[in-house]
Automatic annotation (TrEMBL):
Record note on quaternary structure: Homotetramer.
Keyword Transmembrane: no
Name of this protein: Acylamino-acid-releasing enzyme
SUPFAM superfamilies attached to this UniProt entry: alpha/beta-Hydrolases, DPP6 N-terminal domain-like
Domain of life, source organism: Eukaryota
Family of the protein in this entry: Belongs to the peptidase S9C family.
UniProtKB keywords: Cytoplasm, Hydrolase, Signal
Entry-linked InterPro entries: 6-blade_b-propeller_TolB-like (IPR011042), AARE_N (IPR045550), AB_hydrolase_fold (IPR029058), Peptidase_S9_cat (IPR001375)
């Protein structure tokens, strides 16, 4: 590792898009942008070894650096590199004049993937300094997440089917896709089932076994032989986990997750209200938790059995920790690389909530859900503390949000709040039955769950002020926030929402995930779906716009002008409904941002305005 220290340091300074260390760790490949050109650089311990101007070569378009399609994979012999890029438009064989094609609509893969339409797999040969595009990928799939198969004469990749048209991929693990093997001579074969969804192929160090996630529920599969395509299930769906047990796989695998002996796989996943770190043995299929303190554990990588994780809790900001994979029956000895400069003086506790019998889901009965109450350790002048209810989107889980931490740093005295993320039924970490229970019941079950949790907590904690409660959320969390202030107008004092779903009926024709608009209200979706009056009525009935006339709490709307997931006209629809009734409302418009509102200047603007809005109205 020492001989590549300098190269690693320099590559970090130059890093822009992708970076990958060679198998022997003596070389590092870096893709970066400069002056409108994308460069592929190869560094060793002495400095820059090779440089390819990928833009000038005109073999393909922009290199993909996203987590959905992107990759940068070294061959075993370290003579070849693999990556994914946009297909070069100039290689089109269409006979019509290219000038007349400028206005032809090109599909893309939706929110956060708007510049990605037709990916191709590219190979760089470092021996003869050539760059080429692999042929043989089926014409009805878009390839991505590629890696070298043993021997470096073939490539394994995930192919997402894009016919009859593309649906949004971001946060949608259920898109029809398959695992493929492509030889360098152009012969391609499918390794997985046809009508499934797969992702995250990860090859064991000895090259004998490939694992990948499969299905809407993230089943962890093993491809035991790349020649026979024999598969077996490593981890199956957990429908209703027992307290303290493993609840299923709910997130992507890191690029390096195997043990050095190719017998164990490490991953992080939600378990009730937290993200935990797990290890599964491929022989016994036993799952073991590797964390030693309560909090959120995110696996970054595993290198020669050394695990690197990012840990946080309501009292501790994200911190890197390292530890070696343990032997059987032993615990991990964890070391913190650098103690956090700050910790926070919060009291926090996990709350389990059981719906009353009248709110039980008879199809998936006996489910509970959770929440996290975080509040200052001391009351200011012994006054009761306002409560901010945080609501996330569907099939997600909240354990710690930056707003709570930032409020403490920026407004340690003047803004004295408690925070309450609620993991209603349908959140990850509670088993597959909980996920399925929300389908067809949005706007009802989830709204009642949040309200039940808030009321129960206010009744049991007399330090909280029931007359000063606010609600905050984005996307589906904004949908629920607006439902709450509409259905319980006397209960909430303020509301702040980011890109909220307001009217599912009008959203059905503009969202990049139109299928969710149908599925969420319990309707079957097909590509040739034509909206019916009944379907639109069902969507409207479940939408917060139907309660807009009852909203009296001041509402702050934050909208991204380039949002492909939830059109900003959704928020504008509520804005106009509130303005027409002289209800207090403020709208922040970010024309260059999308659904996540992730630009640095946007995040700063949203944070400060949200804090001031809560301070003003609480």
């Amino acid at each position: 590792m020492q001989k590549c220290t300098r190269a690693c340091f320099v590559s970090l300074l130059l890093f822009r898009s992708l970076s990958g260390l060679s198998p022997t760790r003596g070389l590092r490949a870096v893709v970066r942008e400069t002056g409108g050109h994308q460069l592929l650089e190869i560094w060793d311990g002495q400095g820059l070894r090779k440089c390819f101007n990928l833009t000038a070569l005109k073999k393909h378009g922009q290199v993909y650096d996203d987590a959905q399609f992107g990759c940068l994979s070294w061959s075993e012999c370290e003579n070849k590199l693999l990556y994914v890029a946009e297909k070069n438009k100039n290689t089109s064989t269409e006979t019509q004049d290219r000038e007349s094609d400028r206005s032809v609509y090109r599909e893309d893969w939706g929110e956060a993937l708007t510049n990605k339409s037709s990916p191709v797999i590219c190979v760089v040969n470092l021996q003869n300094d050539t760059v080429g595009v692999l042929q043989g990928v089926p014409t009805d799939v878009s390839p991505g997440q590629a890696l070298w198969a043993p021997g470096s004469q073939s490539v394994i990749f995930v192919g997402w089917y894009h016919e009859p048209f593309r649906l949004g991929l971001k946060f949608c693990s259920n898109r029809r896709s398959a695992l493929f093997k492509l030889d360098l001579d152009g012969h391609c074969e499918r390794l997985s089932g046809d009508n499934l969804s797969v992702s995250c192929p990860r090859l064991s160090p000895d090259g004998s076994t490939l694992i990948y996630l499969q299905g809407k529920t993230c089943v962890l599969f093993m491809l035991n032989s790349l020649t026979s395509s024999e598969t077996s299930t490593l981890l199956d769906v957990v429908n209703k986990p027992q307290p303290g047990e493993f609840a299923g796989v709910y997130e992507a695998l890191p690029s390096s997750c195997w043990s050095a002996d190719s017998q164990r796989v490490v991953f992080s996943s939600a378990r009730r209200n937290w993200r935990d770190l797990f290890m599964v043995d491929r022989r016994s299929k036993k799952v073991t938790s590797l964390s030693d303190i309560y909090g959120s554990w995110k696996l970054v990588t595993v290198q020669r059995d050394l695990m690197v994780v990012c840990c946080s809790s309501p009292n501790t900001p994200p911190t890197l920790r390292v530890g070696f994979l343990p032997s059987a029956g032993e615990n991990v000895t964890w070391r913190t690389l650098q103690q956090p400069a700050l910790t926070f003086d919060f009291l926090w506790k996990i709350l389990d909530v059981e719906p009353p019998p009248e709110e039980d889901n008879t199809q998936y009965s006996g489910l509970d859900f959770g929440a996290i109450l975080v509040k200052p350790s001391r009351a200011l002048h012994e006054a009761r503390i306002p409560l901010v209810v945080f609501i996330h989107g569907p099939h997600w889980c909240s354990w710690l949000k930056s707003l709570m931490v930032c409020c403490n740093l920026v407004f340690p005295v003047s803004l004295f709040l408690s925070f309450y993320p609620v993991n209603y039924r349908g959140s990850t970490g509670f088993g597959q039955n909980s996920i399925l229970s929300l389908i067809g019941r949005i706007g009802s079950q989830d709204v009642k769950d949040v309200q039940r949790a808030v009321v129960t907590t206010l009744q049991n904690d007399l330090t909280l002020d029931p007359k000063r409660v606010a609600v905050f959320g984005g996307s589906h969390g904004g949908f629920l926030s607006c439902h709450l202030v509409g259905q319980y107008p006397e209960f909430y004092r303020a509301c702040a929402v980011r890109n909220p779903v307001i009217n599912a009926a009008t959203l059905s024709g503009t969202s990049d995930i139109v299928d969710w608009r149908y599925t969420s209200v319990g309707l079957q979706y097909s590509y040739d779906q034509i909206p019916t009056a009944e379907a639109l009525a069902a969507m409207l009935e479940r939408s917060p716009i139907t309660h807009a006339a009852q909203i009296t709490a001041p509402v702050l709307l934050m909208l991204g002008g380039r949002d492909r997931r939830v059109s900003p006209h959704q928020g504008l629809e509520l804005y106009k409904a509130l303005k027409s009734r002289a209800s207090p409302v403020r709208l922040l418009w970010f024309p260059e941002d999308g659904h996540s509102l992730s630009r640095v200047d946007t995040q700063a603007d949203c944070f400060l305005n949200t804090v001031l809005w809560l301070y003003q109205h609480l």
